[in-house]
Amino acid sequence: MLRNYLKIAFRNLWKNRLFSALTIVGMGVGMAAVGLMSLYVVHELSYDRFHANADRIVRVVQYANWPGGDLQLAPTSAPFAAALQNEYPEVEKTVRVQPEGGGLITYKDKKLNVDDILFADRTLFDVFSFPLLYGDPATALAQPQCIVITKSLAEKLFGNAAKAVGQTIEFSNNFPNRVTGVIDNVPTTSHLQFSALRSLPDKYTSGWQNFELYTYLLLANGSDPKALEAKLPGFYEKYLKKEIGQLTYRMVLQPLTSIHLQSHLDYEIGPNGTLSTVYTFAVVAFLILLIAGINYVNLYTVRAIARTREVGVRKAVGSRRGQLIGQFLTESTLMAFLACATGLVLANLFLPLFNDLAGNAFAINAYGPLVTGVALMAFTLLLGLVSGLYPALLVSGFRPVAALKGRLVAQSNGGRFQQSLVVFQFVAAVALISCSWVIYRQMGYVTHKNLGFNKEQVLTFHLDSEAVRTQVQALKNELRKSPLIEQVAAASNPIGNNNIGTNGMFFEQNGVMPTSTQVVQTFSVDADYLGTLQVKLLKGRNFTDAVSDRLGAVLVNESLVKKMGWQDPIGKRVRYFLGKDKTAEAQVMGVVSDFHTYSLQHKIEPLVLQMPAPSEQDNLYVRIQPAKTAEALAYIKSAYRQFDPTAEVTFHFLDENFSQQYKAEQKQGQVLLTFTLLAILVSCLGLFGLAAYAAEVRTKEIGVRKVLGASVVSIVTLLSKDFLKLIIIAIVLAAPLAWYAMSRWLDSFAYKITLAWWIFAGSGTLAIAIALLTVSFQSVKAALMNPVKSLRTE
Asked: What is the pLDDT of residues 119-156, one digit of tens each?
């Protein structure tokens, strides 16, 4: 029986080659889209699940708020770990990691600048599952100045990872580190990404308010993280209240597996993904597949209706309805397997492009040939059965007499069902066009918006050597000797990386210094900073090199002046902390215009600029001549090596710093645009097939109309208007859906475009134009047919 079904199925596929090709290609595109997107979604959802104790590991994070300020911090201070382990029996082990272990590594004549190095407690390998290829995990981080490196770094330094253990490497601070272990390369699904781990001193500690490292807890078997979290308010009362004062404070225990997608706190240890992005990509892929499935249902239904005589004959000679359903389901499943093969070819073809868009290196058989094969077989079989069910039930229900007379047409309910499917297809397509357009315009807006300073041709680089930091003025003078260098300044941070930081300060109000602090952004800049970035000074004066300015002067921005309600800010007093209990006072010497230190997802915050101590002058800003980038970089390196001959300088351009913060959104936009084009393509394939069928069934009508004098335009209009009505309905339904989705997406930006009505009208117009082009091809072809041949058509 199955053999007979397959034989008939192949004959019908070959007989209706156009419709078969449209169906297979459309469904193949849908399956390729789902396959590629599944790789991304599964990858994102699998973060940190490779650890053996993943379900028992939590990270300690902090939230606090008080009048005038709040914080939400991923890092904690050094004393947290020991205190939590001593206080709560549910905590089996703790481990702290500190991300400031990177620098210039020297081994014999090799020099490597490696930034992604972490300091870690000796317990790291007890908590996390990073298997050592060489070395003992129990002792690898037990001694001071030990380092465990990844296989790839070991091969770069020593050629052979097996030879690494026991070797000594030097860091730029002249600390020798002995290699005590080599681990396999860190999986891409780890939120902790590093090339090496350096040992943190066993009893390393600092102040309770020095939030510099990340604390992870391994909970005892059977412990409930929520029950432990409920006990943590007592920790604040016992350890923190006397240190940080009275405020609303809470600690949260984040499950390890939720960090990558659900944690977006200040000072995350690395860039995280977003659950909304995963959902967006999954929904878009599902829509593509659904559109392809709708194509199949529509095309197969109209072709099946054309086979009414075949169904009538089969029923007349005794075929039961179940046998007819089996025949049509066999054909749909065969079509699905052919589409699967097409999808695999397309997926492999476009995998490099998708990897580039997703910023990863996925492989089709990433989860093994067996798992991949079984999943494909099951998915394809399910898709074939589900998409073929409606046409099979519809056609198998035809009455034999009506079918044999060839007078059967789609019932009104069936026709309305097919029309609703076409509407759904274009609702999805129009919504995707609108969303892509909004994302494109928002990315253009954030890229070209005036940031309050001139970011063009400004680069920054870090001064690793503390000795060079004490010679910054001499270095700046050396750089200025070249006509390639326009201006140079020093600061404590590069802006645009979303990590400037905040501090609590006291600001004079009505001649009185209040008792509560205001949280503001702070960082240190020298007297050349405003000129180098071309930031406007609105009132007062800039810093000078006088010692009094270094200790007792600050600049503030417009936002801070507005927040304080100062009418005359010049001369206002500002008190700030020097340490745990010591404070100092400064006066406001000038007001600068608001400028962005963070990306446009963030509102400009009140800002205080102070002059840096020598040790804080660890970042240089250099404005270089346009069109002379290569020459300027070479000169900067040459000048810098006069002060630090061993230095390996890494440059970062300010515009790239800011654009990096929009990487996730840009990725969303690129992927959405790609899949929007796929959705339009698949929708048009289906529309093309339906238009061809409509022209075919109305061949005689077209011939009669032409004999009676109908023009080509009138016939094209006749065949196109029904489809046009469906597209207009789709636009009306899609516009509010796209508006709502994009309103929510834009909420993540403090500065954003306005959702104008013409964006959605333009998307609808584009959809209408695409649909008309698709339908018109078949309509014009039918309209130009010789009416004599049309009237002879049986």
From this structure: 999 999 999 999 999 999 999 999 989 999 999 999 99
When pLDDT is averaged across residues 439-446 and rounded to a whole number, the result is 85
Structure tokens at 476: 């700046």
Q: Which two tokens stand for residue 135?
A: 């070395």
CA–CA separation, 575 and 242 (whole Å): 21
Dihedral of CA 591/607/70/587: which sign? negative
Q: What is the pLDDT of residues 69-124, one digit of tens each?
A: 667 888 898 899 999 999 999 999 999 999 888 877 888 888 888 888 999 999 99
Indicate the length of the chain as a whole number: 794
Q: How far apart are CA 150 and CA 130, in angstroms?
A: 10
For residues 489 and 654, the answer to whether their CB atoms sit within 8 Å is: no
**CA–CA gap between residue 594 and residue 219 (Å, rounded):** 46
For every residue of 235-263, DSSP letters joined together read HIIIIIHHHH-S-EEEEEEEEGGGHHHH-
Distance separating the N- and C-terminal Cα atoms of the chain: 32
Distances (CA, A) of 346 to 39, 289, 340, 678, 729: 15, 14, 10, 12, 32
pLDDT in tens, 684-702: 766 776 666 666 666 666 6
Do 174 and 464 meet the contact criterion of CB atoms below 8 Å apart? no
* pTM, full prediction: 0.74
Report pLDDT for 89: 93
Residue 626 to residue 761: CA distance in whole angstroms: 41
Cα R_g (the chain), whole angstroms: 34
Report the distance separating Cα 471 and Cα 647, nearest Å. 15
Q: Are 762 and 615 in contact (CB under 8 A)?
A: no
**Residues pairing with 519 in the sheet:** 504
Nearest to 196 by CA among 257, 255, 135: 135
The C-alpha angle with vertex 21 and arms to 16 and 27, in degrees rounded to 5, equals 125
CA atoms within 13 A on the CB side of 189: 19
pLDDT of residue 413: 44
Query: In terms of C-beta density within 10 A (0-12 exposed, 13-18 middle, 19 or more buried), how is residue 305 classed?
Result: buried
